[in-house]
Amino acid sequence: MALEWAALGAMTAAEAIILILLTFPGTQGLQKGLITVARTSLQPLLAVVPFALFLLLEIYWKYEHLPECKGSTCNVAEQDRHSKSVFKSQRNGILVLGAFLFYWVLYRVTAMLVSLERISNQLKNLKPSE
User: Fold this and answer.
1) How far apart are the C-alpha atoms of 108 and 130, rounded to whole Å?
2) Is the dihedral of CA 38, 41, 93, 84 positive or negative?
3) How far is Cα 104 from Cα 16, in angstroms, rounded to an integer?
4) Is the pLDDT confidence value at 60 over 90?
5) Mean pLDDT value across residues 24-30
6) What's the CA gap between 71 and 79, in Å, rounded?
7) Where are the transmembrane segments (predicted)?
8) How far apart are the C-alpha atoms of 51 and 60, rounded to whole Å?
9) Of 14, 63, 77, 102, whose Cβ has the fewest other Cβ atoms within 10 Å?
10) pLDDT value at position 130?
11) Residue 16 burial (C-beta neighbours within 10 Å; 0-12, 13-18, 19+)
12) pLDDT at residue number 62
């Protein structure tokens, strides 16, 4: 199970790195190459969506089938294990939501940069004709 979360974390980190490089000021010389890299990486990174949905369902299933540990019915070790399990589920849920958010933001920023590049090319073509 840890391998699945490591893979999701790596995909989310890749999305975040590409997003940071795209939005970092002063990279106008590399902008065209970065846009190409982002556009080509969007399709493989789309695999994060069904994968994250599956892991989100796994979190929900674990939460629904978590044994109750209240009062004097369980000892300290069981309470500790229960609280660690809840903490891990919350952490993994934040990772899943972060993966969705980073993919959506990367998609929108890439689309915006592509349209800006297209508009600037149209402006360049119009200026010499005047």
Assistant:
1) 33
2) negative
3) 11
4) no
5) 80
6) 10
7) 6-24, 45-63, 94-116
8) 14
9) 77
10) 59
11) middle
12) 82
Tokens representing 22 are: 């795209």
More confident residue, 79 or 55: 55
Is the distance from CB of 55 to CB of 4 less than 8 angstroms? Answer: yes
- The two structure tokens encoding residue 94: 């934040």
Rounded to 10 degrees, the C-alpha dihedral 91/96/98/101 comes to -160
What pLDDT is recorded for position 129? 66
Three-state DSSP state, 67: coil
Q: Name the one residue in this structure whose structure tokens are 């989100």.
A: 56
Residues in the chain: 130
More confident residue, 5 or 65: 5
∠ CA 77-78-81, rounded to 5°: 85
Q: H or E element: which one contains 49?
A: helix 48-64
Q: What is the pLDDT of residue 86?
A: 83
Closest CA to 8 of 112, 74, 126, 92: 92
Burial (0-12, 13-18, 19+ Cβ within 10 Å), 109: middle
What global pTM score does this model have?
A: 0.80
